[in-house]
Design brief:
Blueprint (H helix, E strand, L loop, with lengths): L1 H33 L27 H13 L3 H12 L6 H13 L3 H13 L5 H6 L10 H13 L17 E4 L10 E7 L6 H12 L5 E5 L3 E2 L9 E2 L7 H25 L2 E9 L1 H12 L6 E5 L15 H6 L4 E7 L9 H11 L4 E6 L7 H12 L2
Parallel strand pairs: 2-3, 2-6, 6-7, 7-8, 8-9
Antiparallel strand pairs: 1-3, 4-5
Helix pairs in contact: 2-3, 3-4, 4-5, 5-7, 8-13, 9-10
Length: 390
Amino acid sequence: MIMNNLQNRVAKQCKFAALFLLFVFFLHSIHHAAKKVVFDTVDPEKIDALNEKAVDFLKSDFDRILMQANRFVGQKEYLKAAQYYLALLKFNLNDSTTIYNLACCYGQLGKADLAVKCLVMAVRAGFRDFQLLKNDKDFAAIRFTPQFRELLSRLPLWQDPGVEVIFVKTSKLLEFQVKLPQKFDSTHSYPLLVGLHGNGGTPDHMMETMNKTLKKEPVILAAPHGAYPNFSQLRGRHFSWEIQTRNRELWKIADPLAVENLNEVIQVIKKRYPVGEVYILGFSQGAAYAFLSGFKYAETVAGIVSIGGLFPETDTEFSMLKETEIANGKKFRVFIAQGSNDRLIPAGLGVKTAEKLKKYGYEVEYQEYEGGHEISPQLIKNIYTWMAKK
């Protein structure tokens, strides 16, 4: 009997303790839910402006986020791609191309409501390629849903049949930065290193990256910027080398113009300063345009540097480069580098590019460095050492 009473008392105490802990946990949950978040785009009053991490989003690598989103699309991992497109849109609500790409992900996932909602927002942000919208295969799974059919019925209201959007080639003034050696002597020639930023990058950051390591070296540094502004709502200026559209017909026109502009930059510098050998360094998106410049103006460049970038497409309907041009063109030197922890560029891609160019007779040096999608001071040193080799 004493044992039973003791067991009852212990059981009651345990029950009371469990209820007490449950109550404490409930209060903690309410308190945690009421706490302010570091970053909230919907309700600014929930932002903890005094949190030490409140401004960390300003350091976001937009090129990395975009490349990761596009990589997931290529791998048909549309849910992950949607997460990255949403991350981009938190910083630029008016990016109609990214909103449309997000809609495509939802289309592939069969989420008609979300896809249509994004398409409406894309139109409000300036999207006008309605022919693409009608025929895009990304919406095959939802094309006959009531939501998508209702969206298509709105197109005549959005598209004025008397208005046509036309793109035309024009000439405009584009600025670029040049840094001369500390002990510049106009009677001596210097190698020229032209740095091309990644998507959403800036010439300021590219110049800072090169100059921080090479400021005492006898080399002329230059940093142009892409012709197409993007991330317009962010602090500072951000640029892309490729036109911000999914219309690949426009890529056929815009990409050659980008390469022509780069060649014009080099020619202006050569007229103004005593330039010897010319090297073009491309980071991320800029790497493809560095290669295109090298193949199209092989007589001008001595070497091309690709850091964490993709090789340009060849022999497709929309590419400006043919394999025969690579095989039969002048063989400039090539330096390819890829970070061991680069999550944007598929592992081994840099090696494959190096092997491909070697087969065509190019002198290629490949380096894999510790790090991610970035340019380290040591890598810049390695590139300059490579440039100095004869």
